[in-house]
């Protein structure tokens, strides 16, 4: 394996931490070992003398992982990363801030520690892509050309698509949203505001008001699809610990709690364990009256009609209605889309359900029309993903396939659709729902059933994942 030390000098938080130390830190538990084992792509680590100017756009999880894998796989890497952010957020930790488990500054990392000196770091943003001319324009006006491009811009929140809501309303009038952050500035208000919200909800319950709390899930693809329910169960458990409850309404645009049957059934059981919890399926938040505390949902449903003897099936009728719900507290998950720079470029899908997202192949992650362009992370217009877990699996595949493209060889590595949803069903247990294009895909060979809530996953998520992210994933070591 051709591994380079990608980070010099190291800061006090990571000082002197070698891969062996990092593994020791995790105690090489069976879980960590199996998770590690599940990620190796041997080709990506083979040294290659291929040459070409690689530009990576985005300095979040995907951009840094792609950079690290490419750098350790090329003997003469020529890599430029365009990343405006000095601060790098460990975004999954926003949930633990919301739940009062992490202190806010625990999720802040520094890109300086991830981007080594031999990688050119442009602290700017891409304003426009011009893939027909292998070039792009920076916000500062400079034009930059490339031989190979990796798009790692992540996605964009669309709070403004909810009529009546502005970002400034979050943290006021009983409104919260764990997602709220500014990746360029490195701020993560959503975590802190939601922790205050948990406590305000508990206070209202203590005062004997039986408050009504609504939790939304929009009808667009979202990053970390489990986050809406994580906030639901953690806040309910936070009250339950003190013998308190509320009216907890999960208003989701989906028709089920989870796409995997076993996990869906387990989540129904979880909901039964919380007094006052119910779900409104196919309810999509469309507008809100912040002052009056009324949320309006678009509700789609089908009704069965007469038996049709010709087609030998019942007729069905589609219905749509607007439903108003009053609330005391509401946790809003914003609609999300690809970032404007990608939407507005010819790199995006021009039509279909993935319109606006990066048009890459589901397996090779190579752009379907621009063969010198690859995608990683949330921006990819593929059926599964939008998690850090998927991004970690993308990274060695993108590196290996990009190098194959540089060498004029066939692209051999294939993404299997792996994604992971660590569903926090209470303070102390997580359902680690791992799956891919074919169905459940547990990383732990002796735990095939991914629907079982386990306390060991809670400990793993709280204590081990962040150091693994910081010391291993960001260095391309897993
Ligand atoms: C609350 C929350 C909880 C989560 N929980 C989990 C979890 O438990 N497990 C899990 O696996 N994942 C989780 N995730 C998802 C995970 O954080 C993302 O899937 C992952 O960060 C995706 O990596 P990315 O590189 O695609 O995007 P990001 O990490 O978001 O990075 C994108 C970067 O691109 C930059 N950028 C955007 N536009 C431009 C431009 N034009 N030019 C240059 N740079 C640009 C942005 O500033 C940003 O720094 C969670 C996310 C959130 C918000």
Notes on the protein architecture:
This protein has helices at residues 19-25, 30-37, 42-45, 61-73, 93-98, 189-206, 227-240, 261-272, 340-343, 388-406, 455-471, and strands spanning 53-57, 78-82, 87-89, 108-110, 120-122, 126-130, 135-138, 143-145, 148-151, 155-157, 175-176, 212-217, 247-252, 277-280, 283-289, 294-308, 313-326, 329-331, 336-338, 373-375, 419-426, 429-436, 439-440, 453-454. With 478 residues, the protein is α/β, with parallel strands linked by helices. It folds into two domains: 19-156 and 339-422 and 463-475, FAD/NAD(P)-binding domain, CATH 3.50.50.60; 159-336, FAD/NAD(P)-binding domain. A hairpin with a 2-residue loop joins strand 21 and strand 22 (429-436). The longest helix has 19 residues, at 388-406. The structure holds flavin-adenine dinucleotide. Flavin-adenine dinucleotide (FAD) binds next to helix 4, helix 5, helix 10 and strand 21.
Work out the strand percent: 25-35%
CATH structural class of the largest domain: Alpha Beta
What Rg do the Cα atoms give? 23 Å
Overall 3D geometry?
globular
Counting structural domains, the number is: 2
Quick gist of this model?
With 478 residues, the protein is of the alpha/beta class. The chain is 26% helix and 25% strand. The protein has two domains: 235 residues, 3-Layer(bba) Sandwich (FAD/NAD(P)-binding domain); 178 residues, FAD/NAD(P)-binding domain (3-Layer(bba) Sandwich).
